[in-house]
Design brief:
Length: 224
Amino acid sequence: MGKALVELFYDVVSPYSWLGFEVLCRYQHIWNIDLRFRPAFLGGIMQATGNKPPAMLPKRAEYMLKDLKRMAKYYQVPVQISENDFQRVLGTSSLGAMRFITAIDMTQPQYLEPLSREFWMRFWSQNEDISQPENILAVAKQAGLSSELAQKLLEMISSPAVKNRLKETTAEAIKYGAFGMPAVVAHFNGEPHLFFGSDRLELLGSVIGEKWLGPVPSVPSPKM
């Protein structure tokens, strides 16, 4: 049986996307899946669907603060969050970062995973800005990109090709039914199955016939 295609639509401004990203990275060599990262723009999805950031509701923000701390510990992902972070997040645009990630996806896809991770690390673990060009270049350097390549990609983010690719990927996520992130789409038995959130990956495994081994699975030892 062929591998099930699993697409992860994500934006680095979303901490739950980071949780889902790391768990799927751990499972990509355990489950019989073809994992594809699909950088998209959360702001575009929210606007198109009429959704609102959950932290705008005070009680939900209060819950999210506790939930993210618990989830980060359980998933073993270094998300650091305090009540002051919600205003910081609401005041940050991830559009430049997501265009930069899209540019790397189009030209140097081998850097897509480490670059995305470094954006999350900077924004959600180190509480640093990711919207300004100098900060985007700092993330690129941390991910192992040369300064020449990073500068070239930074120039690409204003190009129609990159802008259109990000718009197309975002529109594709919406077509599948996404209203927030992470949005995971599993193609199984000839149809797409949408899963919203980082806490639906056990259900994803059930649908595609794979065993859930927890958020930090141990890799089986090779048979002698």
